[in-house]
From TrEMBL:
Gene Ontology molecular function: lyase activity
Protein's name according to its UniProt entry: Streptogramin lyase
Keywords: Lyase, Signal
NCBIfam families hit by this protein: beta_rpt_yvtn
Amino acid sequence: MLASRPRHPLRPRRGFVFTNRTAPGRPTPETAPVTMGPYRGIRLPMSRSASRLLLLAMLAAPAVLARPALAQNTAPAAVQTVPGMPPVTVPGNIYSETTSDKLAPVVRSDLPRVYVPNLRSNDVYVIDPGTMKVVDRFKVGRGPQHVVPSWDLRTLWATNNAEGKEDGSLTPIDAATGKPGEAIPVDDPYNMYFTPDGKSAIVVAEARKRLDFRDPHTMAMQFSIDTPDCRGINHADFSADGRYAIFTCEFGGRLAKIDMVEHKVVGYLKLSKGGMPQDIRVAPDGRTFYVADMMADGVFVLDGDRFVETGYVPTGVGTHGLYPSRDAKVLYIANRGSHKVHGARKGPGSVSVLDFASGKVVANWPIPGGGSPDMGNVSADGKTLWLSGRFDDVVYAFDTTTGAVKQIKVGAEPHGLTVWPMPGRYSLGHTGILR
């Protein structure tokens, strides 16, 4: 007895006719053509109930395959933030509350001003953005580096780090009136951030390789985190959920990841090239970070959750400051035009515009005659990018539609200016990281 030959898995079962041909001597069964779908033209025997079932299955298959799988839903999951942190209202876009139409009620009557700290003249210039003119000037402490909006949006702090001396301080500026208050002595406040829950100010003591957590109003010391392997710790940004922050180590060519819940250093990451990281900013997804490196002339791309470098995008000479647009579609990148800490005037400074969706530079705005764009922010209406001209003693106002730039003369060595008011519910610090 011959063994039965195994049936081919794709061969039709007996009685199912897929063509008009039949075996010689056999009667041709009654058939009907399939008249729709991808199986149109195939004839099936209509005398057998199984054929009808097969027909139904064949017609249903494309619809089943085309239907989106519920298990493969790509919508971002809700973000579980740390206790006390305001919720992320739109998962996948941490900047949803910083659009032009979302000025918080508490800031709507604040004077529209640009506050410019001048490092070598120890003062702050105040610009009226409507007239593009300096309307006020006042002395602060020694070596003001940045003007930092507080978590509650009511105070702008000038961080006077005194550069190597012992008389550092923080000068409070009333956000409503633009008038300064009495300076508070604070050790080495190069920059300042705020915890996502608003309970602490984080004074970046750059020379001490330390983060000092202080009362956000009185600046009384709470505790510190030492960062011994982060030389030149200075700029930072936070994950979407507020569980960690990544700080740049300017003079170490690396980054430090800080656990904001356990208050400890998670680890360090050495960048692949360049070696002088400056500003850092997280993308709308809350986990992709861009790191400006002034020696690499571009931005490194990181996966913050995994704390690994994933890419690099060239931008311009001396890449320095990073600022998202009001619609969170692009990142404005200030290229300071020099690889030196104290560069020459009229360098090849520019602004690059990076598209968040593609990760590519889509525009570059050179400064006619040269310049040194450094730190700043975007106006509340999103129409103007304000940047300090670090080596040229000016402030630049870029039209964000055309890239055209105006210049305003200010004090000696302007640095981390801020624009006020800005949209958002709370500030994480620096020159205005609002969420």
